[in-house]
What we know:
This protein is an alpha+beta fold. The protein has helices at residues 3-27, 58-68, 73-78, 80-99, 112-115, 120-130, and strands spanning 32-38, 47-52, 135-138, 145-154, 160-166, 191-197, 202-207, 213-216, 221-224, 234-238. The chain folds into 2 domains: 27-70 and 119-238, no CATH class; 79-115, no CATH class. Helices cover 32% and strands 25% of the residues. Strand 1 (32-38) and strand 2 form a beta hairpin. The chain is built from 6 helices and 10 strands; from the N terminus they run H-E-E-H-H-H-H-H-E-E-E-E-E-E-E-E.
Amino acid sequence: xxxxxxxxxxxxxxxxxxxxxxxxxxxxxxxxxxxxxxxxxxxxxxxxxxxxxxxxxxxxxxxxxxxxxxxxxxxxxxxxxxxxxxxxxxxxxxxxxxxxxxxxxxxxxxxxxxxxxxxxxxxxxxxxxxxxxxxxxxxxxxxxxxxxxxxxxxxxxxxxxxxxxxxxxxxxxxxxxxxxxxxxxxxxxxxxxxxxxxxxxxxxxxxxxxxxxxxxxxxxxxxxxxxxxxxxxxxxxxx
Length: 239
């Protein structure tokens, strides 16, 4: 190899290194790939592949978490500029109502508070729908599912929690993900999946198909309400 060729190879290596570093900085994590098989559903044993391109940023997580608890002080603290904007808007509304002879909310028969009451599930569905696609889930369905939310929690014993959300319900158009055991099912249009892995990268996953979602304030994420009592829908999960 001559000197000129050596410089070309070196230049390409440097460019590739910079590109890889830029990708890591953009995503905040290397790509994560998980495999699993379905369990406790109509088509148990089917392969599932999960490809997480990156974790959700704090700015992407905040609207999802806030949707479940819109009046919590923590939500305002997480986005002080939005909270300030809401306060300013409310103040302008009060001034405007007073200037028009008090026709603000009271003149409409006091319906202001009732009509403005937040619907957490509707807000959560909308927040997930607006989020960017940061991964994919492939099942035995004809089409895959876009991952709109991905959060990772490392635990002191080396185990991990991986919490994902799609903007569609698993098995919405087929019976493949219908639970085999008689159990109540949720009516969410989205699906949250919580996967727990041991220190070796193996574990299981459960979903919001049969359990409600709540805010886990400690982990600052939306999670399953009762993970321990929820049947596993993903088994043999491996990195």
